[in-house]
Structures are given as C-alpha cells and as structure tokens.
Design brief:
Six copies of one chain form a homohexamer. With about 230 residues, chain A is α/β, with parallel strands linked by helices. Chain A has one domain: Ribonuclease E inhibitor RraA/RraA-like (Glucose Oxidase, domain 1, 3-Layer(bba) Sandwich). Chain A is built from seven helices and twelve strands.
C-alpha cells in the first residue's frame, strides 16, 4: 500500500531571488539554469501576459479526485505556487473558482496543474493565473488519498516542494531553491549579453557573424550556392 | 445502406429554462445535472467570454462534406444551437462566414462542431460564437448524405435533437430538455451554496474544515508530518 | 551522407500578387488555388487578427538545433516569410526575440515554423507574427547542418523556396509563385460571388436553395420526415 | 448528485443471431448495419486472430477506479461481453487476470474497455480476449460509485446494455439487439455478393468496371492522361 | 476548382535496383540516401517480418472516399506498390480484402496508406502486406474525385509516382527512381562497413573507440566522474 | 551552460532481488511498491512474452543525437538495463542492431528508451528485448553532449542510476535499489494472496463477496434495480 503524507514544512527560497527570476522570465531562467527544469509544452497558460514566480507546494492526487488540493491549502504561505499532478493522466476540472478564492486568501500567486481546470471566466475575473493541461468542467470526487509536499512529476519534469517555480507566456519552469542565487546571476549576465546582441541584430548585424557561425557551417559541409544542384536534394 | 433523414420537428425546452442554464454556466449545470452531459475538452471555444444556451439541432455529416449543414439551416429556429458531427474524425473547415450569416438570419445563437471551422476573423466580426475541435481552412464537398436531428455523439457525448446545449469558456454541455427544470433548480441551489462557501473561503476558512475533510483524510491514512520520512516516498 | 546547401537565389512572386492574396486571406486563396497548399491545423497563429503574405525562405533544421535559421537570415529580403521545419518532429523553442529582431531588421514579415517558439511576450511587443506548432522555452544547440531554400514539408504540406505564403487566423497556405496571378483572379471572382451569396443568405435565403441542393439531397436518398422512424437510426 | 444503478435485467439477443454476426465479422456487420455502431480505432485488440460476439453488459466507472467492474460480474451470463468505460479518459490498468478468471467462471466471452488492462501475458495464457485503449500496469482503487447496465459511450460509440457486440482484428462494433436479425440477413447477402465480386477481381476484372465507376469518374471531371500537365498539380 | 487526373504512365526503376533496396531494408536505404525519404512513424506495418520494395503508384483521395483507389488499380503493373493518401487526415478503413484481391491479381506487392485498412485477418490469409496509419472497419463512399499518379504527401513525406518504395518492420521509405542505382551502391558500402563494425562490437570493442568519439566527448565538455557532483545535476 | 557527466560508479541491487522482481513481473511489483515507479504506457514492448529486470544505466541525450548511448556502453555491466531519454520529445531511431550487438557483448539484458528504435527485425533475431516509444528508421547524429548515470525522466517517471528496472508485456517500472528487498517480500505476499483469490474466483466466488464490497456499494448509494428508472440516466 502506498504511504500518503501531508508534509507541513517546506524550505522556501529567498523572496529576492524569486522576484529576480520572475523578472527574468522562463526562457532566460531556463538558459541560466543550464537548460534544466522546464515543464513540457502541454501545460499552457490559460491567460495572456501574466508572469509569476514562487515556492512550490506540490500535490499528488488520484485522477478524478481533488481531495489533496483541499488538504494542501493549509500549508501554503503568501508567495507560494501550487503545483498539482495526478498519479495517472487526467484532464478533469479539479480546480475552479472556489479553490482559487481559498488560495488567494492564503496569498498563493498562481496554480500549475498537470490536469484540467474549470470556471475559467471566474478565474479571469479573480485575476488568478493558471497553467494547465486542459480546460474541462468535468467534476471530481474527494475519495482517495494522495500527498502534499512530496516530489512530483508534472508535464515530464520533476518538481520538489520548495522549488522555485517560474511561469509566464512561455510555460513553466521549476528549479531547486538552492541553485536560485546562482541562476539569478547567470540570468542577469545572459540578459545583459542578450541586450547587447539585440542592439546589434536590430542594426542589421547577422547572427552568423555575431556568433561566428561561418566557420562551423563550413566545417559541417554546408555549401553556399546560387541554385540548388539538380541531383542534390534536401 | 444507412438511412438518412432530415427530421423537421424538434421538441424544444422552455426558453426560461434555457436562459437560466446559460446564466448558471457549464460547470454549475454539469454538477446540477449529476455530472452528466459534458462534451470532451477537445471541442474548445474559439472566442473568449461568450456564454450561450439553446436547443440542439443536430447534424451528422460524412467527413469532408458539409452538405447536411446546409440542409439543417431550414429546420433551425431562433434560439437554437447547431451541433455538428462527422461519421469519422475530421478537422476540415466545414463551417465559415457564409453559413454563419445564414444561421444568424435564422436566429441561431451559436455553433458546436466536432470538426473544423474557418473564416475565424469574420466570425469574430459577426459576433457568432463557435466551439470546435479545430480551426482549419480545408474546404469540403457537398456529395454525401447524412442526417439532421438524429442522436449524434459529439466529443464523446450523446446529443439528442432538442437537448439543451450550454456553452461557455469552460466547454460545452448537453442535457435532455425534460430534465431542464429540475437542473435549473439544482443549479440555483448549488450556486447559492457556493456563494456561501465562497465568502467563507475568502475570509480564510479552509476547505478541509468547511467540507469536514479531516476525518476522511485520517480514515484514508494520510499522515501529517513536518518532514518526509527518508524511506517513505510518494 | 546528406548534402547541405544554403541557396542564395530565390524567384519571388510579384508584390502586387502577394498583396492581393494577403487581402484575400487563407480560406479564399485555398479555394481559388483548387484546394491545394494548405498546411495542417497543428501549426497555429500565436496572436489574433494578423494577416501576412510573402515569399517563402525555407529552412530545414536538425531537431533541437537552430543553426540553419541563423544561416537563413542573410538570404532574406524585405517582404519574405521564413518557413522553418525540422527533419524529425520537434517542439523545441528554436526561435525567440533575438531572431525576430534580426528578421525585422531584414524586413521579414513573419515566421511559419513546424516546431516551437519562445519569448512569446516579447514577440507580441515587437509585433512580429508567428505561426508555430508549439510554444516552449526549451533551448536548442547550433551543432548540426541543414539547408536553406530547399523544398521542405511543413505540417504535411510541401513548401518550395519562393512559394507565396499566406497566413492569418485560419492557418497557413503555400502556393507556387507561378500560379499566383491566376489564383488572385480566381480569388477575386470567388470573393465577389461570396459577397452576392452573403447578402442573400443574410436576407434569409437558404443555402439549399441558393446552391440548388434539394435535387442532390433527394438523389442521395435523404428523406424529410416530421419524426424519426422508430426503426431508423442514424 | 449523480444516481448510480446496477441494473440486473438485460434483454439479450438470440444466440443464433449473435453466432451469425461473429461469423460475419466486424467489417461486414458494420456495412450490413448501415455503417453504424463502430467504436473508434483507439480501442484495439490485444491479441491476434480472435473473433467474438455477445450481449453487452455495460459498466461506467470513475477514472482510476474499478469498483463497478467487480459489481458487474454478478449480472453477467454465459455468452456476454463486458463493455467498460470511464467517466473521463483513463489508461489505468483497471482489469487483469483475477477479473478475467472471474469472468471466465461466469462464461463471459471477452472484454471491451475504453481504458487500460494489465497482466497481458496471463490473459494470453487464459485465452481471454481483450480490446482496450491501452496496456498499463497502473493500479486502481475501489472508492467511487458508478453504474452497471446503463447506456455508455465507448470510443465515441453509444453502447446500450444488451447490444450485440462483435469484436475481431478489425475492432469492435455494437448494435441494438432488435436489429440483429435484419443485420444477419443483410450481412449474409453482402458476403454472398462480396464472394462473387472476389472471384471476378481475382480473375483480373477491374473494380472500375465491376462497380461501373467509369461514368462517375467522368462526371466528376477526372481526366485520364499519359503525363501530368505541367500547370496541373494535385 | 481542383483538377483531377489519372496519369497512366509512370517511369519505373530498374527491377534489380528495387530488389537490391528491398534486401538492404529501410534503415540502410535511408542512410544510403542521405537520410532522406522516410515516412513518419505513424504509418506502421500491420504484420511482422515482411519486406517489400516496388515502384510507387500514388493515389490522392478525399477523406472517407476510396473511389480513386479503384481507379488506380488499372495503372498498376506487377511489382508496384500502391501509396494512398487523403486530402485531410482520415483513419477510415478505405482498403480491405476485395481491393487486396484485385491488386494481387495485378501483381502489386503491397500497400502503403496514410489512412485506415480493414479485413486485417483476411489480408493476413492473402499474404498481402500493408503499412497503414490505422486499422478501422469504418466504411467509405465512392463520391468525390481525386487523382492517381500525382505527387502526394504520405506521413509527412513527399512520394512521387515511380518513386522506389521500400517497406519493412522499420517503416516505409520513398526515393526518386533516378537516385536508385547510387543508393544501392551506397547501401552496399554501408552494409559492408556495418558488418565489419558488428564483428568488432560483438568482440567487445566499444563504439566510443571504434568511432573515435572520445576526443569529441572531451571537446563537448563531457566529464567522466566516479560520483555525480552534489551541485551538478543533468 | 549545462554540465555533462559520465558517472562511472553505480550502486546495483542484489541479483537475487532483481531476479525475484523479474519473476514477480511489472504489475505485481508496482503494487508491492505502493503503486510507484511505473513508466507511462507510451513506452511499449517491441516483442511479445519477454520479461527482464536489471540495474538501470541511465542516459540523457539531445534529441536526434545518440552520442551518449555510445558513451554509456562502457559503464554497463552484465545484468544491467539501459534506460535512454532525450531532453525533448523525439521518435528518432537512435538505437539499432549495432548498438544492440555492443550491449549484448557487455551482458546488458535489455533497452528501455523514451524515443525510437530501428532494425527491429535484426533485434528480434538477436533476441535483444526493447521497450520504446516508437519504431522509426530516422538516423541520428553524434554532435551534442549529454549525460550518463544522472537521474532522468522516462515516460513521465523518474529513473535514477542503479534503480531496479522491471519490464515485461505490461510495460516498464523502476524502483530504488534500496527498497528492493522489501518490495520482493511484499510482492511474494501479494502473489500468494492473489493465488488464493484466483482459485476462489475460478470456482465462481464473486469479487464483491471476496473483497466484501457490498457494504461499500451501499454506502456509496449504488442501487440494485431490475430496470433502469425512466428519469434516472447514467
């Protein structure tokens, strides 16, 4: 029999680190973190233009059952992000405006769920941002146990309690709180470097020159021609 | 050989019932109807913030053929919702702005289609709401027979002619007209009860207390701990 | 070993033809072109209400590798559309705001990519329209060769360098530049004819009469009945 | 709240009719039934070369919960086929060798399940044929109510208790018991007619002649040419 | 309006070339052809252990309509492979034992179809090999025009009439007849080289040594360690 | 920049434990392990009737690149199972008969790969069992770094180096070596208990009685009726 826990204590990252990564955004943080931590593209934003970051409170539910989301609310603190998964794939609408109301009251800044949500119109009115696999009104039960604040896998990515979760229009990323400070620094460097490149590219400099790719293209045997050879096809 | 019919007569639900369910929305109606009637999440709104309800005029088409949609227009009355399926899966754009223009002239309030639509920009200008499986410009023919106002299955859900169809940002639901009045009452009760709960949750009451879930969690063997036991993993 | 080329020269269509097809839009152009040239619905607009047309600069990349997109920028001219594919399916974010900045500097009017994009929020700010299979922040390398301006298959559709690419809310279409003028004429005729039909349909004329479909329905054995026969089911 | 029933009584079709449809097979029965009743291709045989037919005992389960399969065994009679669905999509392994052992003891001839099965190797040893959406070892609970012998939708097809279910290497079909005799006759006619055609086709007669399709091809504007016109593309 | 053709004449490759590529198999031919020509993995063998090669007779059908397969039989010659696509995605069973009987009478060696087949058990008895996207008994009509022997796209790959099609347990490949001889030579070289490597690998030589990959791994910064550094994660 | 490692040392489980879990099989081991460790159903056996267990050597590759599989061979020992993933989804054929030959020479007992394989016919001849997401001949490069023996996620499941991997016709499971002994005991108990149940079920005892489910069904409000109430629908 599986053992089920609600773990009350979570080590959270420094709020300044979290704020810095929210500002950096998912793509830059993903690069700064050595291209790790990204959830798959099936979990999508259900609104436009929202960007959040916070500490992960993780929830593992039985499919079609949102009991453990209710159990998780209590251990959330202001600034947290709720990350919900199911033990097998589900698109059921396990989260809606009542749970959002409850999370808002706790100061939770958003939801990442590898399953479905409902009450989309109300969530927009509440201003509560959600990243989910599906939108579906399908109701769920409260009958089977699960866990809160254990490591979970959401959209193919391991998320541990206390991980820094960053989410915006590009998707969702989770990284260990312990690496946060280093990633902030790397992201800042990257954003600086990108800004310099952006200005050059905007002025018409080509990427093949800016990144010095011409020797690589030659090494790889890429030939520049005016017309495609008749016998050579891609 | 399959027999093909255009059935002219449809028993429609009381307009007050329909209006009440549009106001209740898909999620509450689904709950009030005993969690029945919901179409799968693959049929999605192609606009934001629109909510409709009406009596189903059903159409069964051959894939890649919209002949029977044309045949269906004639039997539509003001307030109806057109529900279109194909006899095998299709994403072709079998519906566009001309058909929308024709349906608007008949007073039809929206389209639910387990296939594709096109002319999306024009549909937005016309203000005609659509729930579909796909957006695709792929043209269709008018060559094969089908039926109008027979029971169909759309996105995994049985829809009968005259069913009350409710559609909003959460998806689409169909329920028998005969159950409409009872569902209106159940939905009203549910919405009242939800409003009371919403206020408590907004004030910080926890769902585990509001719904009295602590005994259930204990019965199910969920243990509250400060740290995850080393040998116990989710 | 595969041969890899960057082909510098592309025969582009007449700008007037391109402008006319942008105005006609994807659905009408698809019909005018004999229902050819349409990409599959998996490549979707990542913004609302944008319509573009231009000459295709095609790129074939190794999955997870955007080297050849960088190589392609140089051969782009104002008014071109970049069309990117991978040699096997990929959702990686091979295109972001830096590449968009570079393409804008070259006068490229948009991107069609059978893979992923990232920096969605920045692309919106830049006003650079994108049609893609996915939004994902997943980073890519610059390590494997590919080709620029060879025939590619994007979303199940052959796209040749210099093809006229039309893209709007309905999806993406590519057609040979040589057929452009004829398609413009056919599209104009179609749009005229549709406008006449639209007015009649708006006045309540039925499509079954406008298109003279009643004899066909009768030929196909479709029967009009008031009630569905008990033994006859769809 | 949904109401849940175990319906004990089911009207079963004549065993001779059932035997005749098993012999006719899924494809011929589907044609004889007016091309109705076919489940979608996602539910696939998990063995080769088995063909069954029987009366449907239907089961509607909560996802991840096989309680109602256990409840259904009692109402099965020799010759029945168990048809299992879930109220939302699931691939969990809700059926394995213990349930198969129990069904074999009841004389049930096979399982059709729009979800997952496990113990595949043991099912092969037992000789119990299964058509399922998935093979997955994922365990399920026994915690949520559902129903036995109510109409269900499996793989996009309505299945009513007592329907004649036919399953073989081509998939699964369900049709109302009341139509069985007529379908048997139509299938016999079809098989006779097919045998005559088979012999002619084997002798080299072309289908376009046998079915007299040349006038239709001409009517539809299909032109026979020796070489594809340069400007005419598919 | 689309133009539809049945093209009677197809330039076929040398039978010796075809035989050599059948012997080489799909994987080796794909490599020898510069990693071009491979159909996507969704088109799968419907039997085990069969390997064929032949000249492509291509068919483009309307979805749900097999009229043009019938029209194609006449232009097939012994040794040909029929390659069937639909103008939009379809899983309908447009091919079964009667068409197989007809093709066998013409000497056709197999079918590649980006859609569904049925009568699977009978096809096995006939020994007619099939590669398809689906197995489904869903019947089709004969009502809409299409073309025979025009370029088509099957499973994301361009196939031209007369292309050499190779198919085995690894999937399906098409390559221009004109490149056949060169590919045969390259495949023979590759198979020789592979045999030499196979013997060394069987003797325990490591691929990193055989292919001299250690310098590359070092260049790419891959570090060999006994234990994973605590702060360094993949 | 991501750091890349080949970790040479892996703590392997006791061979007796591994052998016992191979005998228990995936489904029983999954239950005995508290329903943890199961890979998703998309990774499927590519043969019938094979059952393996061994210690996981994990590989993380760039998509379309099998360099790190070559690097992994060296660290494999007899009895190991190679577990390969890619950093983003891929179906490319990154593994074939040469790599299988090399692994067989090392004593590796099988491959689990969340991507594609090729040379299927040769793998069968070699008797080397494979569980994969796809079969595809698509060739890959050796150009990008990755890691060996770091934690990876395969088909939605975390796999750590040294995990006990069990694979059979039901799929694939991974569990920490440290829990192996306890799981063996639990599996033995379960198999004993199942055997007792199997005998009773074979004798006609019903599961609802054997598992004492009648009170639960009553508690859940499931009603036994002879006929479905007219107003009560599922």
């Amino acid at each position: 029999m599986p053992a089920h826990y609600v773990v009350r204590s979570v080590d959270r990252a420094d709020p300044e680190v979290i704020a810095a990564l929210r500002a950096a955004g998912v793509a830059a943080t993903h690069e700064a973190a050595g291209r790790t931590g990204l959830l798959g593209p099936a979990v999508q934003p259900r609104q436009h233009g929202r960007a959040i970051a916070g500490s992960a409170i993780t929830v593992s539910c039985h499919p079609g059952d949102n009991l453990m989301i209710h159990a998780a609310v209590e251990v959330c603190l202001p600034g947290d992000v709720l990350v919900v998964t199911t033990t097998s794939p589900s698109t059921d609408g396990m989260f809606g405006d009542l749970l959002a109301t409850s999370l808002i009251a706790r100061g939770v800044v958003g939801l990442v769920i590898d399953a479905g949500v409902r009450d989309i119109a109300a969530l927009h009115v509440l201003g509560f941002p959600v990243w989910s696999r599906a939108v579906h009104a399908q109701g769920t039960v409260k009958a089977s146990p699960g866990s809160v604040n254990v490591p979970v896998i959401a959209a193919g990515q391991l998320v541990r309690p206390g991980d820094i979760v960053v989410a915006d229009d590009d998707g969702v990323l989770a990284l260990p709180a312990s690496t946060g400070r280093a990633v902030v620094d790397a992201a800042a460097q990257r954003l600086d470097s990108e800004q310099a490149k952006r200005e050059k590219l905007a002025d018409g400099t080509l990427g093949v020159d800016l990144y010095d790719l011409r020797p690589l293209l030659a090494d790889l045997g890429v030939r520049y021609v005016d017309r495609l050879p008749q016998d050579g096809e891609a």
